[in-house]
């Protein structure tokens, strides 16, 4: 990297931070704003062209992006929506790739069908980053956000496996069974490798007792899953996603609180820079992509028109697919309501057989099914949500990188890349800019605040009741075997009750509850402690060891505050 590239990298980070801060204030999704900024920067005369190796994006940038998203997805929510996620990320991607392939083969007659399907695979997977950014800002229902997140995680794997098979077909004869077998192997091996990578790294990190060491391991988890999978021609993308889901699911049981805080902060930072950096790069490279077509034998205007036709086909296919998918999900919701009494009856019969271990195991399965049905009933996906889901088909990082990874000997390569860029930019700017309007017009309701408060109260009640059971245990002893002092036990009971009250109370800065007053006083005390520590630092009276130790303790206390209060 020369000095010029270093300056570009610094400018890119500053642009990402500035846009991430300013875009939400004007009601624009950050990825959309970054694409516009990148397009504008590409036309500046003093800005140099930048040729980024697409394989660098697919092998170095994409794994951390997917892992950072997967590690924050709740595995139970993912399982409950696997039907919708699987349909969108596998079936729709395959249908879209084939349909676009035949359309391109018809529009560009001298383009082989295999090469056309390869580009179809490139443009078929939507990138959910922009849609999720918009959805969370406007309060989309959590289930809709989960489906979008899950689709964005899995569809890349489907598209890249199809791309690999289509590119292989351009170089020789590949039978349908070869493609099906390659796909099945890529999925199965990717699942196994991702599961192993997630479980092994969680076990290793649980043995370490320093956040710095566990963070260092976490940085290589995506590549521990991606590289071995790609080496045996499995789906490295799927392996990364599975490793992230396993890590996120196991973190509550095996990681310390500080480990989890560090994990969230570090990966959110990485996701911010890498994901948004790709959108900035997408806009920045548009001049180069157009120039490559202009200097070849293809017409730029016709290429853009073909890109618009492909975009229209993709939007239409998604809408047509969402209609039966939504109908199927609504049918599942009705079935969940219908079997409520049946499951309750089963649970009562099994509970009566308390002496049977098998009955206890079956009862736990029934309770889990009841919870799943309650989720489907209370967070059903209606036609309004289906409409928003149908319009949330923006393309992004994989389309950008995979298009440029097409082999150099593919006919009309520059034209195919510009078609892919056209699809990505038109969907991102067109659908991304109009999605907020659609959500507001449809009046899609988010979560029920009162229901959330009731659920929170039930959960906190279970937690504090468990604490009371521990304190009431007659066999409770210190680690030395001596009993606890009664005054200490009484103080612990008061702290347990205060914890439940503090967790149950909403963090409203205008509230006057006792829990809020405690938090407010705690914050004021921490502020005074920080001010006194700064004075002590300026005086030079204390050693850096003492100052550093106290600063670490204060930082740990501040990290436990609500973000608004900590600020």
The ordered string of helix (H) and strand (E) elements is HHHHHHHHHHHHHHHHHHHHHHHH
Radius of gyration, CA atoms, in whole angstroms = 27 Å
> Average pLDDT, to the nearest integer?
81
The shape, in one word, is: globular
Biggest β-sheet description: none
Q: What is the number of E strands?
A: 0
Count of DSSP-assigned helices: 24
> Helical content, roughly?
over 70%
Walk me through this protein's architecture.
The protein has helices at 3-22, 30-42, 54-70, 75-80, 82-107, 113-123, 129-138, 142-171, 176-207, 211-231, 236-254, 257-284, 286-294, 300-338, 340-352, 357-378, 383-391, 397-404, 413-442, 449-472, 486-504, 514-539, 544-559, 563-566. The longest helix has 39 residues, at 300-338. Helix content is 80%, strand content 0%. It has 24 helices and no strands. With 567 residues, the chain is mainly alpha-helical. The model has no long low-confidence stretch (mean pLDDT 81). The radius of gyration is 27 Å and the shape is globular.
Quick tags:
mainly alpha, 24 helices, 567 residues, single chain
What's the quick description here?
This protein is mostly helical and 567 residues long. The chain is built from 24 helices and no strands. The longest helix has 39 residues, at 300-338.
